[in-house]
């Protein structure tokens, strides 16, 4: 069975619309509305939005209320669906779409929908700028292909809807992947519990169009933190001994974090960024903040690094008589693909027009919170895989010039749709 993707021009038009209106994690208000509108046009059986799509209590990295309000108001000005927007208040974005054809397997497809805080290139040889679909939300762009992923989700639903099958297809339009904040919440929601097989996909990955990796493994487990040291201000020249220096505590902690011993059992990473203290040169700092992250080749190695960071923070706070608060703002685990799903996708891809190179398994090398959904399905007795679909991206991911070869859109929809239908057969 080889599914036929929707019209390529329609897929391109939809991808370009998503590209024009990028929104960051938990602020995907307009994006969520447009996805639901497309699902309504298709006549999807069930559409779950907002808190009904995921477990709101498990969200990580939710922006402050001012940021949420700004993006919400922007979406209000660009859509005419207050009924939908009212369900998304507080950053409850994302959608779960369900096609229900009765008894049979339940297959899930996870796609992500958020963008990045990157200013898109205006170069004349950057196709979105040259052809008029560059980001209209200045300072933000789809620099990782999630516009294509959202298009995949809708294209797969349209394709499968027109096919004969028995069972259930669920498409998870997940928010906040770039924050590593949405996967855990969607995995903890009510819609994944009965999924027997799960597919996830990513375009680009610096591979040419026509190349498919049926199983991407070895995603680095990661944990990201917001760190705040609190001390007491004092005159730096007159009575420095009366202060409790938050900057000194933060710098000590940062230096010690880089000194955490690397682990013999695999890859470990640590990085500290965005150190900030808003104090004059003649004032002992009473407050200092930073963002940091740790990664590991396995979840256990990431946890080793995370606990080591906590020790560094607490010991630096004690040394300099400060307090420290640390909150996890994003997290992902490692979870590898199941061989039966890898084999199925590889066999399907071999028969899809436009595919000329199929690789069974390879390392992802980055981090990805689809692993939470994969783990949940696998631990419930199901199978999952995360595949890569080459798109000849002319620039690396997370760069101002990122783009894709739009020929990947029908290729991706065909691979995913045919795989879904094989699993439902």
Report on the architecture of this protein:
Helix content is 34%, strand content 21%. The protein has 425 residues and is an alpha/beta fold. The chain folds into two domains: 8-218 and 335-424, 3-Layer(aba) Sandwich (Aminopeptidase), CATH 3.40.630.10; 221-332, Alpha-Beta Plaits. The chain has an eight-stranded mixed beta sheet with strand order 1-2-4-3-5-12-6-11, with helices on both faces. A four-stranded antiparallel beta sheet has the order 8-9-7-10. Helix 2 (29-42) runs parallel beside helix 6 (146-161), helix 6 packs across helix 12 (408-424) and helix 10 (339-350) packs across helix 12 (408-424). It is globular. The model has no long low-confidence stretch (mean pLDDT 97).
Uncertain parts = none
Order of helices and strands: HHEHHEEHHEHEEEHEEHEHEHEH
Structural class: alpha/beta
CATH superfamily of the largest domain: Zn peptidases
For the termini, the CA-CA separation is 9 Å
CATH architecture of the largest domain: 3-Layer(aba) Sandwich
Average residue pLDDT: 97
Residues in helices, as a percent range: 25-40%
Alpha plus pi helix count? 12
Number of domains: 2
Number of strands: 12
Q: Judging from the principal axes of the Cα atoms, what is the shape?
A: globular
Widest sheet: strand order? 1-2-4-3-5-12-6-11
Strand fraction: 15-25%
CATH level 1 name of the largest domain:
Alpha Beta
Summarize the biggest pleated sheet. Answer: 8 strands, mixed
Brief overview:
The chain is built from twelve helices and twelve strands. The protein is an alpha/beta fold and 425 residues long.
């Amino acid at each position: 069975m080889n599914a036929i993707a929707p019209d390529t021009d329609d897929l391109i038009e939809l991808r370009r619309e998503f590209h024009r209106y990028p929104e960051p994690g938990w602020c995907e208000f307009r994006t969520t509305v447009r996805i639901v509108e497309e699902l309504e046009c298709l006549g999807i059986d069930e559409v779950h939005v907002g808190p009904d799509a995921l477990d709101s209590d498990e969200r990580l990295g939710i922006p402050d209320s001012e940021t949420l309000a700004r993006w919400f108001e922007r979406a209000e000005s660009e859509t005419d669906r207050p009924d939908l927007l009212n369900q998304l208040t507080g950053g409850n974005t994302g959608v779960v779409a369900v096609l229900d054809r009765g008894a049979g397997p339940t297959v899930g497809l996870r796609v992500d929908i958020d963008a990045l805080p990157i200013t898109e290139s205006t170069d004349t040889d950057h196709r979105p700028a040259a052809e008029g679909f560059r980001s209209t939300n200045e300072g933000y762009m789809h620099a990782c292909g999630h516009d294509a992923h959202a298009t995949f989700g809708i294209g797969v639903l349209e394709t499968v809807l027109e096919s004969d099958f028995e069972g259930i297809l669920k498409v998870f339009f997940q928010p906040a992947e770039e924050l590593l904040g949405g996967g855990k919440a969607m995995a903890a929601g009510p819609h994944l519990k009965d999924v027997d097989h799960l597919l996830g996909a990513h375009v680009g990955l610096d591979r040419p169009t026509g190349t498919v990796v049926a199983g991407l493994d070895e995603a680095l487990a990661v944990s990201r933190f917001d760190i705040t040291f609190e001390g007491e201000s004092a005159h730096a020249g007159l009575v420095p001994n009366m202060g409790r220096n938050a900057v000194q505590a933060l710098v000590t902690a940062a230096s010690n974090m880089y000194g955490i011993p690397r682990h013999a059992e695999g890859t470990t990473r640590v990085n500290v960024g965005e150190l900030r203290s808003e104090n004059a040169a003649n004032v002992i700092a009473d407050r200092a903040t930073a963002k940091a992250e740790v990664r590991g080749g396995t979840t256990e190695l990431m946890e080793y690094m995370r606990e080591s960071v906590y020790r560094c923070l607490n010991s630096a706070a004690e040394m300099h008589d400060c307090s420290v608060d640390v909150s996890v703002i994003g997290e992902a685990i490692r979870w590898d693909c199941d061989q039966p799903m890898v084999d199925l996708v590889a066999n399907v891809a071999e028969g899809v027009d436009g595919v000329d190179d199929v690789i069974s398994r390879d390392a992802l090398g980055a981090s990805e919170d689809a692993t939470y959904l994969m783990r949940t399905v696998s631990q419930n007795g199901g199978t999952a895989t995360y595949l890569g679909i080459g798109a000849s991206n002319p620039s690396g991911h997370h760069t101002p010039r990122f783009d894709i070869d739009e020929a990947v859109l029908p290729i991706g929809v065909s691979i995913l749709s045919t795989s879904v239908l094989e699993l439902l057969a």
